[in-house]
């Protein structure tokens, strides 16, 4: 493992906000996890930081990264085991090269395999669990074990992995033949036209309430373009909050609070964040 003391976390969040970590540990072998979790407290597992808002200042937190656990292994035709640290779009590229299909609707989502499986990430009617066959986890007893898909509880943007605070080490997928490149290109164009990808952001900020869309509610509430400090509710996609370059952690929290209060007062709906908010222990 590699241990970096007093490490700046700003570039580990897509929002480009973050303070100085007590330590940052890069895992080089899954067997190291037991030692890390037995030795250190207040640990936060950081993926690609694509949906993680990190507090500022000196952080009494030990960050752990699995970015070097990024292998792709074909166990048999259509059955692929992938390390949790692999960038998701590298899996899409592998699928394209080897003519495997099943996750094209998710193409373009920034994030690691572990992060997307952890929250059952999805887009355009598909979820990553659609193709999951098995996952390997480091559990609350500091043991490594494998679980079949039917042994895992999961739902919209939620899994029991979150609730039990397990760490995903790898995921095994089962794919069909016939990669749909045209679908991927179509989705890429759609993302670029509808999402503010030119500014730091954390993707969809709020989960969609049952039977509705957060973006629609925020737009109808007249909140598009609302700005607090350096943070703004995107006019291009109102469920995205963007950083104009000088936004602070508190700016983002104030925007979140404003949206939740307004939507609750207008519609009686309590929006729930899809992003992860990491506050320092004070």
UniProtKB/TrEMBL annotation:
EC number(s) reported in the record: 1.3.1.98
Positions of the catalytic residues: 157, 204, 274
Domain of life: Bacteria
GO biological process, one term: regulation of cell shape
An example molecular function term from Gene Ontology annotations: FAD binding
One GO CC annotation: cytosol
Catalysis performed (reactions): UDP-N-acetyl-alpha-D-muramate + NADP(+) = UDP-N-acetyl-3-O-(1-carboxyvinyl)-alpha-D-glucosamine + NADPH + H(+)
Presence of keyword DNA-binding: no
Pfam families referenced in this protein's UniProt entry, alphabetically: FAD_binding_4 (PF01565), MurB_C (PF02873)
Keyword tags: Cell cycle, Cell division, Cell shape, Cell wall biogenesis/degradation, Cytoplasm, FAD, Flavoprotein, NADP, Oxidoreductase, Peptidoglycan synthesis
Biological pathway: Cell wall biogenesis; peptidoglycan biosynthesis
Enzyme class: oxidoreductase
Annotated PROSITE patterns: FAD_PCMH (PS51387)
Domain FAD-binding PCMH-type: 17-178
InterPro entries cross-referenced by the UniProt entry: FAD-bd_PCMH (IPR016166), FAD-bd_PCMH-like_sf (IPR036318), FAD-bd_PCMH_sub1 (IPR016167), FAD-bd_PCMH_sub2 (IPR016169), MurB (IPR003170), MurB_C (IPR011601), MurB_C_sf (IPR036635), Oxid_FAD_bind_N (IPR006094)
Subcellular location: Cytoplasm
Cofactor(s) named in the record: FAD
UniProt keyword Cell wall biogenesis/degradation present: yes
PANTHER family: UDP-N-ACETYLENOLPYRUVOYLGLUCOSAMINE REDUCTASE
Record-linked HAMAP family: MurB (MF_00037)
NCBIfam families: murB, PRK13905.1
Family label: Belongs to the MurB family.
Function statement: Cell wall formation.
Protein name: UDP-N-acetylenolpyruvoylglucosamine reductase
